[in-house]
Amino acid sequence: MPDLSLDAEALYLELRDGVRRLLDPDTRLLGIWSGGAWLAERLAADLERDRPGVITSTLHRDDYGQRGIGRGGGATRIPFAVDGARILLVDDVLYTGRTIRAVLNELFDFGRPAAVTLAVLLDRGGRELPIAAAFAAAKVALPSSQRLRLA
Q1: From residue 112, how far is each of 22, 109, 115 by CA, in Å?
Q2: Cα(108)–Cα(95) distance, rounded to whole angstroms?
Q3: Which positions ≥6 away from 10 have C-beta within 8 Å?
Q4: Dist. CA 139–CA 132, nearest whole Å
């Protein structure tokens, strides 16, 4: 089955507009390593927000035993107090929901936010957990055997 290719820049512009509607003055951006981290950085610059934090799912993944720490990427860096914060999580692709579950576990290691909202560039379906994005720039239904490429 061929890969599905999507226009990443067009999706980003849609994401930027959707995120703008989700933000209030007190909401803090937090990008999920790695795809969500660069999206959050760009969104913060384009929307004139404070520099976002970065969060990793590495230590809370249910497949940690198979993956280990080597493929997890960067460390969590949250430049704001989590307790009582309104947080907008940003990621590139939402698939099974397992990364989001792991990220929420990591986030609560830092405190108890007032609210957490999720925005993604692409929701590809195939959820294994009851997790949904408040905003997705695009939604596509792909079989698990098909890969997705943002160009």
Answers
A1: 20, 8, 9
A2: 22
A3: none
A4: 12
Long-range contacts of 101-107 (CB under 8 A, 24+ apart): 101/60, 101/62, 101/129, 101/131, 102/57, 102/58, 102/60, 102/61, 102/62, 103/32, 103/55, 103/56, 103/57, 103/60, 105/60, 106/55, 106/56, 106/57, 106/59, 106/60, 106/76, 107/30, 107/55, 107/82
Residue 151 parent element (H or E): none
pLDDT in tens, 73-131: 578 999 999 999 999 999 999 999 999 999 999 999 999 999 999 999 999 999 999 99
Whole-prediction pTM value?
0.90
Confidence of residue 65 (pLDDT cuts 50, 70, 90): low
Q: Are 129 and 102 within 8 A, CB to CB?
A: no
Cβ within 8 Å of residue 34, ≥6 positions away: 73, 74
